[in-house]
Amino acid sequence: CLSDWSSDVCSSDLFNNGGSGSFVSGDGLVITNHHVGLDSLQKMSDSAKNYPRDGFYAPTAAEEVKCLDLELNVLQSTEDVTSRVNAGVPAGAVGDEAAKARRRVFAEIEKESHDKTGLRSDVVTLYQGGAYHLYRYKRYTDIRLVFAPEQQAAFFGGDPDNFEYPRYDLDICIFRVYENGQAIHPEHFLKWSVQGARDGDLVFVSGHPGRTERLFTVPELEFMRDTQFPQVMGLLKRREVLLIAWGGRSDENARRARDDLFGYQNSRKAYDGLIAGLQNPAFMKAKQEAEENLKRQFSARPDGQEVLAAYRGIASAQRVIARDYLRFRMFSPIRGLPHGFDCDSFDIARKLLRSGDERLKPNGERLPEYSDPKRDTFELDLFSDKPIYQDYEILCLSDSLSDLTEKLGYDDPTVQGVLAGKSPRARAAELVLGTKVRDVAFRRQLYAGGAPAVLAAHDPMIELARLVDDESRSLRKTYEAQNEIKQQAQAIIGKARFAIEGTSTYPDATFTLRLSYGAVKGYEENGAAVPSMTTIAGLYQRSADHNDREPFDLPQRWVDKKQALNLDTPMNFVSTCDIIGGNSGSPTVDRKGEFVGIIFDGNIESLPGDYTFDDAQMRAVSVHSAGILEALRKVYGVKALADELVNGHR
């Protein structure tokens, strides 16, 4: 089925906010999801122009709006560097010693590749350490908004319909990519299918799935069930309540909190499904039995005792991680903001502090995010001129400090140092109102001056970051050392697994390019048949069934244009393709390689997909290509854009 595809045509592109996308015209158009583009829409908006609420269209190139800090990465090549990485870790090295050695060889490979090619270069861990591949990407940083529907159309049904099916969403956002001031002309792009997907069709999804844990051992799954997920869920529910209450005070508050609230609600519902899967005794029993079966097979091999010892090593390392996990989440998550200091001002302050300290070290000894090959992306983010609002910062930091105090205890020495004799709210206000890190010129000045300039600034938010930095680094060091132990153990298990299973099991997702295939196919839920497709008629009926009340109310232009539409046009559809978070925005293509839809969600049954997959009910949900064209032409009146998608050129 893939014989007439080029590798460029079936690939997709990765945004720096974690979503996927694809080129759909020879004049640089890229399509992704509205919820992937929402962060950019939010940053472009203000009280006078509200793109998430009202939508956007640029009829001419001059009216396309440049995104503040959006980056698009297009994969150029991959290379297996497993032997080199393994050779860089001394025999017998474990824990922190091995982690440092592996970090050094990663940095060496990435810098060598970046210096040679000019491409973003990332060493990626596959099979939990069983293999290492170098991925090279072409970076584009001039990304301009062309079209976005209203969020009410993109996320019709809101939280009640999220991760459900049937769905009726126009979850799309269209950008154009520029380089040197001119729209790029990609050699390959996806041809748009006017007819789109049909029931029973073979389809493919290419994208960048984020993280899965399907090769995790039982102790690792138990840690997620008993420690990690409950802690994260507590935070998500807390923040959701906070932002709903604050947003309810004014339309402007609601606009400022919109993107974060969407993220919290989306994640909360996803974690509900993940926890439900892990709390299912039948699922955990099946995992335990499968693991015990593998252990029995391993024990009969010459290296059996080494493999069984690797399982014990993972269990031991996981206990250490669980012991410190609460403080780690509060002070030092590797990705995202620490739970105890959840605001942009703290994030900027910590980056300024650490960039000054890390640049004094050899490249291979730095924290990875401060390495030379990562500098361009780091600086794009650090010097973004995105709006940061004082009142919203105080709200978020105040709640974070209150959460920190509740979780660690009022008398905890670090908590006392952070609060400095004040209440969480008073301390948050003091820090946010006193810092200058929201001034881009100030950030540039300190960044250029390095550690001495950062120290001399005496900025209160930077000093808060300095106060907790030693403990934060120590917690991260412990976490990474234990993960290194797990990684080495997984490599031993993986080698033995390959000997038994071959390549029948693919590596866990790593935000790198993957191709999944499946069929457009409905399923059964509670004894009732769920059809594979919904229609525009169903959208209007869904709204009417709820008396057009929020979140089932339609934007006024959809109400006005109903009579002009072909109501039988497909709107959304499901397939058996295996997707996960990060696949948002991935193109769904047919056997000819034509664009027939765009992934935007999974159904509720797909939520345990982080650690298992079963195509009996798990479904990927796409916006239908025919539904997109119908909406563009007849609801939004953007004929030129629709014609460009169909013809492939302006």
Q: Report strand %.
A: 15-25%
Q: What's the mean pLDDT score?
A: 94
Q: What's the multimeric state?
A: single chain
Main sheet?
Answer: 11 strands, antiparallel
Which structural category do the helix and sheet elements fall into? alpha+beta
Radius of gyration: 25 Å
Count of helices? 21
Helical amount among residues, as a percent range? Answer: 40-55%
- How many E-type strands? 20
Low-confidence stretches: 1-11
What's the overall geometry? globular
Q: How far apart are the first and last residues' alpha carbons, in Å?
A: 30 Å
Describe this structure in words.
By secondary structure, the protein is α+β, with helices and mostly antiparallel strands. The protein has 21 helices and 20 strands. The strands form three sheets. Strands 1, 2, 3, 4, 5, 6, 7, 8, 9, 10 and 11 form an eleven-stranded antiparallel β-sheet that branches. It has a seven-stranded antiparallel β-sheet with strand order 13-12-18-19-20-17-16. It has a two-stranded antiparallel sheet with strand order 14-15. β1 and β2 form a beta hairpin. α11 crosses α16 and α13 packs across α15. The N terminus is likely disordered.
SSE layout and pairings?
Elements: E1 13-15, E2 20-23, E3 29-32, H1 34-44, H2 51-54, E4 56-57, E5 65-66, E6 72-80, H3 82-87, H4 95-117, E7 120-126, E8 131-140, E9 142-148, H5 151-154, H6 158-161, E10 173-179, E11 182-183, E12 202-207, H7 218-247, H8 251-278, H9 281-299, H10 304-331, H11 344-358, H12 375-382, H13 390-408, H14 413-419, H15 424-434, H16 440-457, H17 460-501, E13 514-519, E14 523-525, E15 528-530, E16 533-535, H18 536-545, H19 556-560, E17 570-575, E18 587-589, E19 595-602, E20 620-624, H20 625-634, H21 639-647
Antiparallel strand pairs: 1-2, 1-6, 2-3, 3-10, 4-9, 5-9, 6-8, 7-8, 9-10, 10-11, 12-13, 12-18, 14-15, 16-17, 17-20, 18-19, 19-20
